[in-house]
Amino acid sequence: MAVHKIFRNTLVALVGLVCVIYGLASEEVKARTVSTKYSCINCHRDFTAVLQKGHPPVKGKDITACLVCHPPKSTGKPELNAFSARLHRAHQCSKQKLDCLVCHTWQPARIFGLPMQKWTIGKSSRKDMDLLKQIFNSWSSSVFLDALHAKKNVTCKGCHGNTIPISEATIENDRCLSCHGGLEQLTAKTSPLEFPDRNPHKSHLGEINCTVCHHAHRESEVYCLGCHKTFQMKIPGVSIKSSKSTE
Fold first, then answer.
1. pTM, 2 dp
2. What are the residue ranges spanned by the domains of the chain?
3. Would you state the pLDDT for residue 25?
4. Which of 37, 43, 47, 48 is the most buried (most CB within 10 A)?
């Protein structure tokens, strides 16, 4: 009887384990194929019409056709990505503002990636995904620094590396300086002719974070004006209305 009981318990445990594994596998398959219900040809009957002049013919009907030649870059380095930037801007600037899942696969807190790709961009929760959609809307068409970077083919990875931006994300100075030159270069570039000592990149406070002034997904601000109310200083990423109010 004892042997029979052990065998029965073992069998039940194995069946349970198989069900769990099958369930997880099913969820992963579902996550990786969620975008297959959409197709590029729903809007683009002929890929030729949206390709740059001289681009080789494209066979296929979804994003996997592009990934054959344009695999995602996973180095995390602050490098330009013209393919990704143009593709995202085109779909975000359109009247439809397509949802991320038209091309991406996603399973909350588990998988966020692309079909036919083994690696994932990150594990984003529902809250993170909602934020990501807001960021991309801003990145594609705002007056802030994110949109200025988008026009230069800088995607999320250019600033955030291989992590999905979240509300608490910060950017280190080294990341900014890798593209914008060293601090000495910036200091020379922004040295005022009339008052050389009023250089925003040579502060009497010492080295401060670039993000004190330069905000990507919201309006930038002149940190110096917190104390020096009479300063006349303009920086990119400030709306025309706000710019006028500080003059």
1. 0.74
2. 2-77+96-134, 173-245
3. 40
4. 47
